[in-house]
Amino acid sequence: KTRLSLVVLALGNLFLGALKYSFGELHHPDALMAIALVILALSPAGEVFSLDDLRRRMARAAGERAFIPFRMSDDYSAFARWPLLTIRWLFALIFFSAAASKLSFSGLEWMNGYTLQHYLLQDSLRWGSSLGLWLSRFHLPVVALSWATMVCEGTFFLVLIMPRLAWFYVPLAAGMVFGFYLTMHANFLQYIALLS
């Protein structure tokens, strides 16, 4: 019942997100998880490496009274990659949009370190993050983090052109998201799960 379970999970997530936003502030990190769960529910998930697959194989083996080995090459679907590629495209758009937003509002001044220091100080005082408050005191590391953030967000789309770059960009982006959470309490932790 993988497909049914995924549909229930996607609809349940949408319902709980809508309920949460009915009583509080509206923020955007939950949208990508909701989209990804709907995409996963529409995909051929459950065909391989699932309890459904194991049940089908065990029933076939019991009927034939013989062991049936699992071969990945026997199971092929032209539609198996589209959920992962769609999520990868969404991340490329999200990160590029974040970089473009930073450049359009602050220009190249965003990378001088002072803008990120301001946000670190503002959010650490607002949310009580001692790590963000501590980090905001050091200008040169914040300049390096500003540049690293801009490079990661602005060039993440290269993963679409050269998929091997995912081994570099995915840990970098996950670390960046986790760093935002630790220093500014910017809760984009769903992105870490989706990047994985």
Notes on the protein architecture:
- Helix 2 (29-42) packs parallel to helix 10 (189-195) and helix 4 (82-106) crosses helix 7.
- The protein is an all-alpha fold.
- It has helices at 2-22, 29-42, 51-64, 82-106, 114-127, 130-135, 139-155, 158-161, 166-184, 189-195.
- The chain is built from 10 helices and no strands.
Blueprint (SSEs and pairs):
Elements (H helix, E strand, L loop, with lengths): L1 H21 L6 H14 L8 H14 L17 H25 L7 H14 L2 H6 L3 H17 L2 H4 L4 H19 L4 H7 L1
Helix pairs in contact: 1-2, 2-4, 2-10, 4-7, 9-10
Total DSSP helices: 10
* Unreliable stretches covering 5 or more consecutive residues: none
Question: Would you count the extended β strands for me?
Answer: 0
The backbone outline, from C-alpha atoms, is elongated
Strand content: under 5%
Helix content: over 70%
Quaternary assembly: single chain
Strand and helix order = HHHHHHHHHH
Which class of secondary structure composition applies to the elements?
A: mainly alpha
How would a textbook summarize the main sheet? none
Compute the separation of the termini in Å: 24 Å
The radius of gyration over CA amounts to 21 Å
The average pLDDT is 85
What are the salient characteristics of this protein?
single chain, 196 residues, mainly alpha, 10 helices, 72% helix
Quick summary of this structure?
This protein is mainly α and 196 residues long. It has ten helices and no strands. The mean pLDDT is 85.
